[in-house]
Design a protein that fits this description.
Rossmann fold, elongated, 5-stranded parallel beta sheet, 14 strands, 2 domains, 7-stranded parallel beta sheet, alpha/beta
């Protein structure tokens, strides 16, 4: 095994803000060296280990802690995808960022990695194209993921920091459940849907920040996990109870009601969050179509997408729930809901599903 932290540099660290610990796992020595130099030139990072295969990475994780693990997918022996569950277990809360050419060329592989617990994915350019925009995006992703891990650690040590004021949950009929998610959200969505095993008698809507090319594979993952029909919506689709209706990668999922029938209306108007698709128009549309029978759920994701729509839903008598800080890969979107006092529950995804099942009069546990 290569010497641990062989590529790290000594820096003066602030006790209040220690360096973010990064591990690089890639079978290419050139890629490891380039990524290491790219990261090490920033004073707020420390390369704690590098590994050329999954086995080396698992050995390293026995003796070092990492906040973020950069993981290639195609490697000799166990692939990054095959080793991901063990790396997550041994990483003790470390966020995994898939950095691979497969992140762009192999949409199905990337979606599988995100479903299995990777927090995010970034296409790896050719060896000669590592500099410039890629370096900027990589460092930004690392900071967001690494700080999320530090925040989760702090909360785990201080339960009082999780104190949130909750709203009462409406007890009337359940008309529609709309879920919004981004970074780390696919894994959370699957946990929610697996726990929601019984029919709820209402349609489910999903807005997940993913490129359009990923959406067919994403729909298959949700269908497999939930046992429900899942499909990417088209203009004019009629909502069906217990079907999962997924926003396409290039439009907001909005609704229009005509009597008892509710249809999909696709909208590409820029959202305040800058996201396309955005959870804000979806939740606002649920508020208009379902009022106090609508429920919005915000899962792991960066930023504050969903906050405006959630406020609209609450104003019309609907309910909003959020994933808790400890279970979320990135507590950005759910945090906005919780800290604004809009949430009726702040829990891990499986517990949120049980709250939905209770309201629907179903049993979600086996």
């Amino acid at each position: 095994m290569r010497p641990l932290a062989a590529l790290s540099r000594r820096r003066v660290e602030s006790p209040a803000e220690p360096s973010l610990r990064v591990m690089i796992v890639d079978d290419s020595a050139v890629a490891r060296a380039v990524l290491s130099r790219m990261i090490a030139c920033h004073a707020d990072f420390e390369i704690v280990a590098t590994a050329c295969c999954a086995g080396e990475a698992l050995d390293a994780l026995k003796v070092v802690r990492a906040d973020v693990i950069l993981l290639d997918v195609e490697m000799p022996g166990a692939s990054g995808l095959e080793a991901l569950p063990d790396i997550l277990r041994m990483g003790r809360g470390a966020r995994v960022l898939i950095v691979s050419s497969m992140a762009e060329e192999g949409a199905e592989t990337t979606v599988r990695a995100l479903a299995d617990g990777a927090a995010d994915a970034l296409p790896k350019p050719g060896i000669g194209n590592f500099a410039g925009h890629f370096a900027e995006v990589l460092v930004e992703r690392l900071r967001k993921l690494g700080r999320a891990e530090r925040e989760a650690e702090a909360v785990a040590r201080d339960p009082a920091a999780r104190s949130i004021q909750l709203r009462a949950m409406p007890s009337g009929p359940l008309g529609c459940v709309a879920l919004g998610a981004s970074t780390g959200g696919l894994h959370a969505l699957l946990e929610f849907l697996r726990a929601l095993s019984s029919p709820i008698g209402a349609p489910l809507l999903v807005t997940q920040h993913l490129p359009a090319v990923f959406m067919p594979y994403f729909a298959r993952q949700l269908e497999s996990a939930s046992g429900r029909v899942a499909h990417v919506v088209g203009e004019g689709d009629v909502l069906v109870d217990d079907h999962i209706h997924i926003a396409p990668g290039d439009a907001h999922l909005c609704l229009e009601r005509s009597g008892i029938e509710v249809r999909v209306r696709l909208d590409r108007t820029p959202a305040p969050s800058g996201c396309l698709p955005s959870a804000d128009p979806m939740l606002a549309s649920v508020a208009d179509a379902y009022g106090d029978e609508g429920v919005g759920i915000l899962l792991s994701g960066m930023g504050r997408d969903g906050l405006i729509g959630a406020r609209r839903l609450v104003e019309t008598g609907g309910a909003v729930m959020a994933q808790d800080r400890v279970s979320a890969a990135i507590w950005g979107m759910p945090r906005g809901i919780a800290e604004a006092g809009l949430a009726s529950a702040v829990m891990p995804p499986a517990d949120l599903a049980r709250r939905i099942a209770d309201r629907a009069g179903a049993k979600s546990w086996k």
